[in-house]
Design a protein that fits this description.
Blueprint lengths: L6 H25 L5 H5 L4 H10 L3 H26 L3 H32 L9 H30 L1 H8 L4
Length: about 170
Amino acid sequence: MQDRPRWPMVVGTVGIVVAIVLLIDTVDDVMTLRWTAEDWRMIFAPNVADLIARSMPPVAWRVFAAAAQTGLAVLLIVGSIGLRRHRPVGVSLCRLWSWLAIVWVVVQMARGALWLRQLGGEVPVLGAVSSQAYALMGVALAVAILLAFPVFLLVWLSKAAVRAEYQAWAG
């Protein structure tokens, strides 16, 4: 009897962990939907709390973002379980998730850039060239981290040996 490769279990498990992290992040976002400046003052200095309360995206956008992120997390969980069970649908769902996640990162980064542009005049440190360089490095790092797993999945699932393996799985 030929041993089955371990990658479906490993990649599927990593996908489930990533999806759970996405869900936890979404819960945090939903918990703060109706927070006011007073609520933010429990965590931050009053001037920072006021800035956060004033600059938050509209509730409708935050609800949409939470729903989108939840949908992406569920899609990744289902696809990852499919990988672990050696089901071709798991590969299709993980590919779909990867492309949607990449699009979602681009949308979120564009939204974040608009947000920072709006805040530029309110936060003095955002005006300094050195601070902008650090912010740009932070954004680049965040994008790299957010894109790491979707890009990995697309590359991994396109490898000839991996493709040959999952094409042999029974539907």
